[in-house]
Amino acid sequence: AINPHDVAAHNDLGRLLLEAGDVETAKQHLEKAIARMEESPETNFYYGLCLLQTGEEARGLEFIERAFEINPRFRYGDAHLEVARYYHRRGDAGKTREWAERTVAINTSSMEGWTLLGEAAAELGDVAAARRAFESAREAFTALPSYLRLPGRRYLVRAKRGLRRLPAQ
Length: 169
Description:
Elements: H1 7-20, H2 23-36, H3 41-53, H4 57-70, H5 78-90, H6 93-106, H7 111-123, H8 127-143, H9 146-165
Helix pairs in contact: 1-2, 1-3, 2-3, 3-4, 3-5, 5-6, 5-7, 6-7, 7-8, 7-9, 8-9
């Protein structure tokens, strides 16, 4: 049993439940944590992500933006990438592009960020930007240390596939 007054435990449990896919239960725990930890970028971010995934997009983005106001480099671009993934799943290329650009501005070696940026730019018809993003994903892969190459390979394949689908120059 969890101590109802231990906000750090509620925060951690909410984060773990969200990562496991139990959004509703995670939201309940994060609501308890956010009430007393409103200055924590982690709590703001995960609570905002819960709100996004439960359909409260405007409110969720407020909490996510607040997390970045508190710490602009929170999770070194991965937090921005989470939001880009959310919009990519929903098919919103404009917002996917916006959040993927934020990701690669912080973490230039984010292969997934570059790939999402390229896919969104291609969907929006910006072939030059898509080509640059896919090329950047390939360059990021070559700069990866060997232990990160296997997980990065799927984004390399997506980037190469994206390049092949673009019209010739």
